[in-house]
Amino acid sequence: MTENKKLLGKLIIIAVVMFGFAYALNPFYRQICEALGINVLTQKDGTVALDQNTQVDKSRNVTIEFDGNAQGPWRFRPTQASMTVHPGELNTVMYEVVNTQPREMNAQAIPSYAPQNAMPYFMKVECFCFKQQTLKPKEARQMPVVFYIDPKLPRDVKTITLSYTFFEVGGGLVKTAAN
After folding, report:
1. Which of 48, 74, 77, 154 sits at a 20 to 30 Å CA gap from 161?
2. Residue 45 main-chain phi, psi, to 5 deg
3. What residue intervals traverse the membrane (predicted)?
4. Angle ∠(45,51,53) on CA atoms, nearest 5
5. Over the chain (179 residues), what is each successive 10-residue block's mean pLDDT?
6. For the whole prediction, is pTM greater than 0.85?
7. Cβ(143)–Cβ(46) below 8 Å
8. Sheet harboring 133-135: ordered strands across?
9. What pLDDT score does 39 carry?
10. What is the per-residue pLDDT for 173?
11. Longest distance between any two alpha carbons in the chain, whole Å
12. What region, left, alpha or beta, does residue 46 occupy, with left being phi > 0 and alpha being psi -120 to 50 degrees?
């Protein structure tokens, strides 16, 4: 029985030492990293320096015009008509769609660009056009397009028009429990 008590005492000591080591590891690691100048998350004054996007061409302005066309029983439009951007700068525009029908509908948006030679330089990071949308009866939704213009855009292109046509997918038939 005394051997069991000795073993229990040793295990408790080991557990306390392991807990203390784990507790001290985070500040110890932070001090080592700060001393070596690696993996520094914040500056010494506590402020975080934000990286600047060096790909943004602030010497150029490009006007982006937005258009929305609906091929079906809904309202579809951009929430703003245009914006002026710098190539390389990340931007967001919202499009709004309203299903005016008393039934659920599946729809898809297809983009087009003018001038056509600007298309390879219009880079979408996030877009509702990437997948089919399901709209509930009378549902209104705002959907983002997050994009940037590639700085390699030819200098003679000053205006780009992004136009979406929003159309119903599946012929307007939605399966119900009775079907």
Report:
1. 74
2. -85, 0
3. 7-25
4. 160
5. 88 87 75 67 50 73 93 88 93 93 90 91 90 91 93 92 88 46
6. no
7. no
8. 82-85, 62-71, 159-168, 105-114, 133-135
9. 59
10. 46
11. 90
12. left
The CA radius of gyration of the chain, in Å to the nearest whole number, is 29
Bridge-partner residues for 64, per DSSP?
A: 83, 160
Q: Copy the structure tokens of residue 171.
A: 């012929």
Instruction: With CA atoms as reference, report the closest residue to 52 among 93, 92, 89.
Output: 89
Asked if 68 contacts 77 with a C-beta cutoff of 8 angstroms, the reply is yes
Amino acid at 52: Q
H helices of the chain, in order, are 2-36
Tokens of 142: 């705002």
Q: How far apart are CA 139 and CA 104, in angstroms?
A: 9
